[in-house]
Amino acid sequence: MTVVYGVVLTVLALIAFSTINAGIDLLMVNDGNIDPKYAAIVGFGILGLVHSIAIYFFTDDDAIAADGGWAELTIPDSATGFIRQAGYRVFSVGPVFAVFAATSIFIWHAIAAVPGEPGTVWGDYGSSPSPALIVFLSCWSAVNIGFTFASCAEAFHRDLFALFVTILVAMAFVGLGITVGFLFLPAQSTGSALISVVIAFPVSLFALVGARAWAKVRVARWDAADPRQLQHLQPRWDGIDPSTPGSPYPGGPPFDMLRRGEKLLMHFKSERTPEPQLLIVTNQRVVRASILGSDRTFILDQTEPGQLSGVTSQRVGHDLMTTAHFHDRSDVQVVGGDPAQSRAFAVAVARLARTGKVRR
Known about the structure:
Order of helices and strands: HHHHHHEEEEEEEH
Number of helices: 7
Number of strands: 7
Structural class: alpha+beta
Helix content: 40-55%
Shape: elongated
Oligomer: single chain
Largest sheet: 4 strands, antiparallel
Radius of gyration: 25 Å
Distance between the termini: 44 Å
């Protein structure tokens, strides 16, 4: 969908540019006529707006569980739903959108009634590669900035709602500022614009990487501290209610969450919180679950075992993070637990992923 959105939004910008370039004012001001010299300004402004609000085109987690067709659980009451997405999906939006934007401007320049002054970003677009690089990095930076604010908003959404709203308001103002900046970009000196974007791009990228990593850890801690907030998302599989103690298998966690014909291969238990969390590997799925006060397993997240690539056990600050890594989706984490058991679990999963066998 990232490519589809990139194409559609670029086509819309091209239509707006072509309309104004033909002297047609869609707002019907001045008898429906407009100076074609504004075509580049409006076109660049649309690109700035689209890239600064790119988060609104990244609102769903479309990963589907292989068996049963259930959509996997995303962040409860999520504003954007992209924190738990695989990294490649998050970090591909910026460059994909930016490539389409930078490429489309070559078409603009070829049909432009007013091709711009030499020495400016717009005027040099057909004669130098620098303007295309400037637009590419500017659009990518705009996406990074928007995603950085979205990461911070996600981190506070469920427990500090006032701060969440404040961040969203700030994101809107920053997006407006980015749009205004793009309005002035066509007339900016090519040299000064290149220097500015070469500085801004790595800063925006590092900010996104850091904010997303921090937000993921904070979300994981919140889930560990209060898993009951996720109960309204708990689905049912194969007519079995996982919230019913001992159904269909007795024995308590994690055996009570097994389906008919499902076999437990290994699991790791984090006992840091009053309601410990589990990473569970069966022959049918990989599950992150919580043990509720009534001594029953409550499933928080799950995926098919074929996606599992390994588990790492490491310290993040004062916390022990046991993280399950997957091929086509984001990581799943639990906080705390016994370090030796965490390492042993990681080794066992690595062997399972490599050989398909469980050490007995």
